[in-house]
Amino acid sequence: MNGGEHALEKIQWLRQMAAKHPEDAQTHFWLGKELAENGLWLEAISSYSAGLTYCENEELRNDFIRELSLATQQLQQQATGSAAAPAVQKNSSAASATGMSNVAPLAKGMETENIGEKNEAPPQETDHKRDGRNHSLQNDFGEDDEKYDEADDDNSDYEDDRYAGSQGTGAGRQNHSYKVKNHPGLKIIDGGQREKKEELPTLNKVTFEDVAGLHELKKTIRLRIISPFFNQGLFSKFRKKVGGGVLLYGPPGCGKTFVARATAGECKATFVPVHITDILDPYIGVSEQNLKAMFDKARHHKPSIMFFDEIDTIGYNRSKSSSNYMRGVIDTFLSEMEGIDTSTDQVLIIGATNLPWDVDNALKRPGRFDRLIFVAPPDLEAREQMFTLKLHGRFAKGIDPHWLAKHTEFFSGADIENVCERAAELVLEEILETGVERPIMMKDLETVLSEVKPTTLDWLRTAKNYVKYSNHSGLYNDIEAYLRKFGRQI
């Protein structure tokens, strides 16, 4: 097996692993690295972007951003290298202007026939020159243009009538004119993003009734976000804009995306989710156009709610960024949120991030994401409902969700799902070894809880340092109050 086949097998295996475990950021990272090493830059960007969505490790996240930037730069270099094509195109146009586009080729081995009596016979020198030029064109452009001409029957018939005056019979085939195109015979291997049918946004059906617990968070969102949508007359009386930006921040896996979708359902507004793959494009200027198009769509369907997941990827702090590639995207984002020629009235922009301190400060100023809402780990009631939901439909018996909720302080929704999954794996492993089938029981869940720790603790400890030294403006007062309440346990 040569190196190329080995690389393809490795890529295929990594793709299967990524499909099997879509939330494994490490798998997406190594798949992107393998694709990049084989020159598949566009697929590598897609893999890095998918991994960023599930990445919870800050160091790995920085690796994702670095590799994503490198892959994008490579695609830009490829696009720059293909800029020589317009020069060939210009030469083709010049040839067409001199009349070379109207010459007719002579098939190999075919004898030249005289033109009919009604038409003046051109001098033989012209035939020889035409023959020579045609031979040169065939060598220059190859068989691709010949196939193109055979497919273009109308133009071929027109040229035959113009130069032949009658049908040619050489080798049992009709003479076709050979016309110089305004482009060389090049085949496009990959032209960037594939066109896809645009899906119109629809009204969201998820509401706060589908969100377990989190009553304080719901109350805050109703007061700051939902009330303006239902009392537009009152707010307009005080010239208070309905819309703007809200930034949801908190530990990963605590339901920021689901809360945003439920908020749109409560507002009875059109929900427009925006992913990084919808925005980023390897060609210069296209990312900015994609972002502007998403804002135009939201304004067209207002009242609407735009949701930017992992907003720190698009709006990364420019003072910390080592690449200039994202500066244009951030500038466009700032302009669309509050610019001279733009308006977000009745368009609410919700951003979600695990790293609010990495979001560009210009995005957090009044008029943009001026309202920051902390999405804390699920409370006791929410955890109890989550255990009930995650174990529903499984082969389980004698489960006490309340006890489980009391012993899972600081566990995120993703952590609770992981506990249930690992308990099921323990039971399945035992069944495969003993051959005796049994349900999931409390002892299995207790065993798992003795082995795992909540993933939110690392985030809360990091946030504690930022709040202590970087909360002079009061943006992180919500998390400061949370840490004051649970600080000793963290």
Describe the fold and architecture.
This protein has 490 residues and is mostly helical. Helices cover 53% and strands 6% of the residues. A five-stranded parallel β-sheet has the order 2-3-4-1-5, sandwiched between helices. The longest helix is centred in the first third of the chain and has 28 residues, at 124-151. It is globular, with a radius of gyration of 32 Å. The protein starts with a helix and ends with a helix.
What key attributes describe this structure?
single chain, mainly alpha, Rossmann fold
Short description:
By secondary structure, this protein is mainly alpha-helical. The protein has helices at residues 3-20, 25-37, 41-54, 58-81, 85-97, 124-151, 153-163, 215-230, 232-237, 256-267, 276-279, 286-300, 311-314, 327-337, 380-391, 401-406, 413-434, 442-449, 456-470, 477-486, and strands at 244-249, 270-274, 304-309, 347-353, 371-374.
Assigned CATH architecture of the largest domain: 3-Layer(aba) Sandwich
- Tell me the CATH superfamily of the largest domain: P-loop containing nucleotide triphosphate hydrolases
Shape: globular
User: Percent of residues in helical segments?
Assistant: 40-55%
Main pleated sheet: 5 strands, parallel
Beta-strand content estimate:
5-15%
Total beta-strand segments: 5
**Number of helical segments?**
20
* Rg (C-alpha, Å): 32 Å
Low-pLDDT runs of 5+ residues are 87-200
How many structural domains in the coordinates? Answer: 5
Query: Helices and strands: which structural class?
Result: mainly alpha
Main CATH class of the largest domain = Alpha Beta
Distance from N terminus to C terminus (CA atoms, Å) equals: 53 Å
Strand order of the largest sheet: 2-3-4-1-5
Q: Estimate the mean pLDDT confidence.
A: 74
Q: Helix and strand string, N-terminal first?
A: HHHHHHHHHEHEHHEHHEEHHHHHH
CATH topology of the largest domain: Rossmann fold
